[in-house]
Amino acid sequence: xxxxxxxxxxxxxxxxxxxxxxxxxxxxxxxxxxxxxxxxxxxxxxxxxxxxxxxxxxxxxxxxxxxxxxxxxxxxxxxxxxxxxxxxxxxxxxxxxxxxxxxxxxxxxxxxxxxxxxxxxxxxxxxxxxxxxxxxxxxxxxxxxxxxxxxxxxxxxxxxxxxxxxxxxxxxxxxxx
Amino acid sequence: xxxxxxxxxxxxxxxxxxxxxxxxxxxxxxxxxxxxxxxxxxxxxxxxxxxxxxxxxxxxxxxxxxxxxxxxxxxxxxxxxxxxxxxxxxxxxxxxxxxxxxxxxxxxxxxxx
Lengths: 177, 113
Known about the structure:
Largest interface: A-B, 61 and 64 residues
Radius of gyration of chain A: 22 Å
Largest sheet of chain B: 3 strands, antiparallel
Helix content of chain B: 25-40%
Number of helices of chain B: 3
Number of strands of chain B: 4
Distance between the termini of chain B: 19 Å
Radius of gyration of chain B: 16 Å
Oligomer: heterodimer
Structural class of chain B: alpha+beta
Helix content of chain A: 25-40%
Shape of chain A: globular
Strand content of chain A: 15-25%
Number of strands of chain A: 5
């Protein structure tokens, strides 16, 4: 599936990149299209290449556990502290730089995932979402909604700010029945 | 019969979801310019409408939809996500949408029940 996505992305990039090299009649056609549509959308579906080895494995048949609720709930406050801790330690002294922050987002999300996994809360799936942005006079709103089982599933969130950047960390924990 | 259903209906299909999200963002924000007083309403609307459409698909999935709307100001933004789940059944996709004054990034995570 991701090969298709990669091909689509490659085709999109080729289309955009090659406007200047098209013949004159083609360039005109592109311009008229742009006039009618002044918004662009791109789709990205990026996956680590190692995961594709798992695809040929057939779906596992699950048996009933006869368990109605999780034995141990997800510790939201502990995770709040983990987020505070990780964001402060990694970003306290940093200035916003494109290359550094690109690496930083990936690293921080992996670190947070590892620390939450260490809590060993059974039967919970974890999603960690990190956004790091530059502080300039812009406005931004981040919102999320979830369709899940409100009694078992939960989330934890923390924001960090220093003089040149801000970071928002969200951890969602979903119970696997 | 059960196996047939499980392979067809319990896969996370990226294409359907991206179409739904793109349409939702188009209808909600369309080509409006960035407006501070409407942004709250836009974010809620994009996320709620997407969730409604996703639940109409009728698949056995729990969904998490995140939306980031920001003004085009030359400022940089990086987003990363790391997930601990079952690779065969769960999936995610991100749709980046822009117009002349606004960027909108919508991420959908689907976890199989």
